[in-house]
């Protein structure tokens, strides 16, 4: 553990993207090159027949849904249109009324140990939420990162609406940095989780480790049927710190990944593929590594959440303090990425599809690396145009 903390501290002080990026004026990547499209090594034959969205589009803020949130991280839309949001540092889950902005604390998740980039992070609703009312959460404990599910009992008093955690998956390496944290149920109703290498870069290429991976499991936490490696939840490897997961309308998985000093990445995820870290950061000439769909200098992105809407991937940038649009044609970028809201709302943590041309966007100014102002942090409703 001492070695992990020492390595993490070194990464923070060495000026890397450090998993979640620095605020404007902070240390970080030195490459300020413009974002670049790259091409994955292989694409399905069907992509040639798919229509690409326009090369240029736009997005506008429709309204502020809620404000005054502390260290918000994960966001899960409820069937009735309200939202559940996690507080990384407080370890609580709050329900937000999307009509009034009113906030109701469901309760505190026991066992959460917030420090550095760890704490209560990703949220996801069970695929059977209408009948089982289960909320899944990814969080850091004193010993590891893990995933637990809790019964949401709405009829109980505020603050007492979360049942005892049922841990479905444990043993994901933790560190002061690079804890991953995003979870999402895919179109196949399997649970996916993005993990980090906890500051120990060698874990990413070690397929026996859960660090620096995308994991795929059943709702009960067992390795999902059809995974690429026998009896393993590992779905892809060679990652540094994955915090964005989203599927397009063809059920293809994309993931956002923090770089260190040079390139942040948007990747198209194929089962069993190696995404290069720490041997490669960004585009590589080595055919053993799956190249990104697009890449950015770390001061322009430090990406956390992503969402798919209107034919594009939308990517929230922390250090970059902007929302990126990557139009897709098949599994490739159809045009150069576009940036929106640059510097207008500070650090951007999470973006989630609200259906059709709408997005939910969560800011991240109160996480210890931002410059919070009155009203921070916020949930915004956006419209893609």
Give the tally of β-strands: 26
Quickly count the helices.
2
Could you give the order of the helices and strands? HEEEEEEEHEEEEEEEEEEEEEEEEEEE
Structural class: mainly beta
pLDDT under 50 segments (min length 5)? 1-16, 23-33, 39-48
Outline the structure in words.
The chain has 385 residues and is mostly beta strands. The protein has a single domain, classed as 6 Propeller (Neuraminidase), CATH 2.120.10.30. The protein is 4% helix and 36% strand. The chain has helices at residues 2-13, 129-132, and strands spanning 36-37, 59-66, 72-77, 83-87, 92-96, 103-108, 120-125, 134-140, 145-151, 166-172, 183-185, 191-194, 214-217, 234-236, 242-247, 253-257, 263-268, 294-297, 303-309, 312-317, 323-329, 332-333, 338-340, 348-353, 358-363, 379-384. The protein has a five-stranded antiparallel sheet, with no helix packed on it. Strands 19, 20, 21, 22 and 23 form a five-stranded antiparallel sheet that branches. It has a four-stranded antiparallel sheet with strand order 2-26-25-24, with no helix packed on it. Strand 3 and strand 4 form a beta hairpin. The longest helix is centred in the first third of the chain and has 12 residues, at 2-13. The radius of gyration is 19 Å and the shape is globular. Residues 1-16, 23-33 and 39-48 have low confidence and may be disordered.
